[in-house]
Amino acid sequence: EVQLQASGGGLVQPGGSLTLSCTASGFPFSTHSMTWLRQAPGKALEWVSTISASGRSTTYVDAVKGRFTIPRDNAKNTLSLQMNSLQPEDTAVYYCARTGDTRRGQGTLVTVSS
Description:
The chain is mostly beta strands. The chain is built from no helices and eleven strands. It has strands spanning 3-7, 10-12, 18-25, 34-39, 45-51, 58-60, 68-69, 72-73, 78-83, 92-98, 108-112. A hairpin with a 4-residue loop joins strand 8 and strand 9 (78-83). The radius of gyration is 13 Å and the shape is globular. It starts with a strand and ends with a strand.
């Protein structure tokens, strides 16, 4: 069974940083492209970033380019999202998922507010 657990969310002030983690199990993590998604209050689910299975290729939504990075550790079956220069519009529940898979597990709430 595919299991994905995001963690690391919390309250941070504008301009601050936060790193999210995603622990994956139930599938061969190192062979799958992985994705972070987010859903702000009252808004639709939004794609944030994707990393290839090898980790050599990454893509980001324009709104987070230059502020977020998406490293992965295939030896530990973990995916991260390093978020810098956070803004109130980054407030959302963040989810990790296998790229192209609708299953996204439990998310973690990030709140950016002063």
